[in-house]
Amino acid sequence: MSEFNYAMASSADDASTQVKGTGDGSLIAGGMTLIPSIKLGLATPTDLIDLAGAGLSGISVEGTTVTIGAMTRHVDVASSKEVVNAVPALSGMASGIGDPQVRNRGTIGGSVANNDPAADYPAACLGLGATIQTNDREISADDFFTGLFTTALKEGEVITSVGFPIPERAAYVKFPNPASRYALVGVFVSDGPMGIRVAVTGAGINGVYRESSFESALSGAWESATLDGVKADESSMASDIHAAADYRAHLVGEIARRAVAASV
Amino acid sequence: MPDGNTGIGAAVKRKEDGRFLTGKGRFTDDINRPNQTFAYFLRSSVAHANIKNVDTSAALTAEGVVAVYTNGDMEGVGGVPCGWGLTFQNGDPMVEPVHPILAAGKVRHVGDPIAVVIAETKKQAKAAAALIKIDLEDLPAVVNMTNAVEGGTLVHEEAANNICYDWAIGDKDEVDKVFDGADHVTSIEIINNRLIPNAIEPRVAIGDYDAVSQKYTLYTSTQSPHVIRLLMGAFVLQIPEHKLRVVAPDVGGGFGSKTFHYAEEAMVTWAAGHLGRPVKWTAERSESFVSDAHGRDHVTTAELALSKDGKFLALREKTYANMGAYLSTFGPAIATYLHSTLLAGVYTTPLIYSNIIAVFTNTVAVDAYRGAGRPEATYILERLVDRAARELGIDQVEIRRKNFIPPDAFPYQTPVALEYDSGDYEATLASALEGADVDGFEARKSKAAKNGKLRGVGYSTYVEACGAAPSAVAGALGARAGLYESANVRVHPTGSVTVFTGSHSHGQGHETAFAQLVSEQIGVDIDSVEIAHGDTDQVQFGMGTYASRSLAVGGSAIVKALDKIIDKSKKIAAHIMEAAESDIEFEDGTFKVAGTDKSMGFGEVALAAYVPHNYPLDVLEPGLEESAFYDPANFTYPAGCHICEVEIDPTTGVVEIVNFTAADDPGIVINPIIVEGQIHGGVAQGIGQALLEGCVYDDNGQLITGTYMDYTMPRADDLPSYVVSTESSRCTHNPLGVKGVGEVGTIGATPAVINAIVDALSELGVTDMPMPATPQTVWRAIQEAS
Fold it and tell me: Which CATH number fits domain B298-469+634-785: 3.30.365.10, 3.60.21.10, 1.10.10.60, 3.60.15.10?
């Protein structure tokens, strides 16, 4: 593990100022990706600015929106009565991230900012039409996730919370990679104020994306039979030893179908 | 058996678990020597290249660095030896290239060590290694065995077409004649997938040198400390055995991969002598993936000739066995001595021909992994039998019964060298059929179909040859060592006992099971028995633990030594009680004079042996300590039947194991809890090979499955609750009647799982299933069939 300077930020703005003042510094939330990357020598930040003291955790439900502070841990989202009542698909998704150790450390803000192409939260954000609030602005999920491990965040911009419009019905179904248990294909579907949405993680060559062909089909009839036998475009699917593009394209259809069937 | 029953057959809890479960085990990495340094190996990141230059100057001046070594610094140090020599069919010896401690001139696989940095801290050693400049001239990599044997790129110049040996057993002409006239021939092509062992404790080695005694000590996480002392001392470092101590304390699993002598052990020992300071190396997990010997990796074409009513007439096979880049300690033996000799299985097949071609590739060396050769042989056989039954329309159970070696045919000489001493295959089959509720299968299948699932049942009836085993037979088949075991039983003056055994426990529970033998024989409680192992300065000699041999061979040596203890004790008791030795009876720890009420406890006799005031000193030495070496007359032959039931989701290809039944005959059971645990663990690994685990290299020899992100280990939620039972038929040639149980799971389970999948998918036209049967693989097979 390489050496780095460590500082605790007192607020999102403070974190932003601090990280901009470093050589090649990095914000750290739960550290579930960053710390292993540093250990393996894949990341060598000069400074870590810790968001743990920035007052960014907490869950609130107001009107038609569930707002989750950026430093809220997965375990807190999974066990929040408000989230369970308002968007059970969201709490259910959080309860299936990683393992208990990861859920006890990992945060929504860290997951969303990292935008791992096999992570679960990006699918929830895109699938519910969430709004990502930063210390500077609001960014819609549709604009936020721009590619593998890349987002619309500018240098030094800090996520403060994520707002999820409460859907009429939604579900998340994950088909795990047998080895890593990350999503080989994960599909978050919802029908609500943000329209009909089908967000796919784990499968797309550019990371999380919306499967618009399924969305138009479901706008005709929100039932699993609508998606019988459909599949994604093979040419836009990732391919690896666990799943070639054709298998992933098939799974996207099947898992989306199951998500619609499971939606509540 | 004493009160409280801690003897043979008692389900006592493992004595060692207290320290393991409370984190108090003492593993090699827990050992730190005064003034210790740390080694970090710089390993090749490419599979095949000429080393043009290694510039260590910057590393040598880095902070904390004590030394940097490359191959050129190690004059007089030998290569890592191979413990087994095979021959070509014409009698020529196998090609046995030098396996240098550090790469000499060439790197031959990703992970091949090029240099070692020794520094004050591990971090400094690792940081300095990054400063070493390596100038490599890349060569094409040879990864696939089919390409390798076509020649072109050679892993070793001396191995034409990358062939290590081309060996055969059986009369090919006779076998071919039977095939030519057979009613039916069933053929199969099999890839037995390469596995990465993944012991929970990575390998660790600490070299230490004492200038005063001029003695070396190697602390290492090995399964066979005396073998390491012999191989490293005699062949690599030229250290005589009385000046070399090898200590293997608690070892956190090995599955075979810690049997072998590894370069890192020699490196730290040599460097410790060179520097006059202890040198410690602890493998990182990703380092284990590219430096621990892998397992399996066979490519086989096999055929079974049958009569039209399903009687097996002959079997022939050709197997390419991947050796990797270098020959590991037992590498050449796995596909031959432990594989070809098992191809009769539990069946009366009269003629067998097996041709094994061992191939060098630019991959990590391949050697014994739990089962070692016998899973590969059993898989071939049980897949062939399953397929033959389908082709001939014979029931899976019926075809097996029709060809079983019957109980009255033992001892049974197979056509492939082995003579099975005992077995009752019908007994374990019957037990498994009942445990699996096979009669209810059709109803369960119909119910599953209503939920869109395909349900299948698969069988495997297996035998294994374990307890490796007679030195003369092993020698005739190429072993360069004996395969006996030794024991020393030291009875202390107050009657407690220390047993020094050459077996080495790395999870098997020897401290309990061996103590139970003592408890049974001389009537002391297991808490009065200490089992000492894993230190060549304490233990007289040993061949270590592998091939399910510890109880059958090591336990038998203990019993032999105990018999000598009892013989001597009777003489002492006879003297003290003034009776004829022939009148002394020994039962439950008490010596009695037959027909009288005179008696003496074992403890009293022990005390008399050490306080010989009233003692036959003219004919008997004082003290009570005996040694024995035991060289078995034969292998032992555990056997059994595993039945697997799966449910497959045809839309995703996901296979769920819904029932798994194992009925095994491990011989006489010493501790049923340990036996059941061994079956559970072995079955998990057997299922792992069938469904989950598979080592993948790309065409450039890069290890794709180099972390747990891509290499799938079995987890609890991948596995069902097993139905486990044992039927014991006695081994006829060892004193305990024991056979062994360490490997039955990896041997029996794997074909049962694949046969179940093929059964479930047979209605779709699927006839084969590659391993591991991942969701993608199963889904693809369904797509291709329909």
Answer: 3.30.365.10
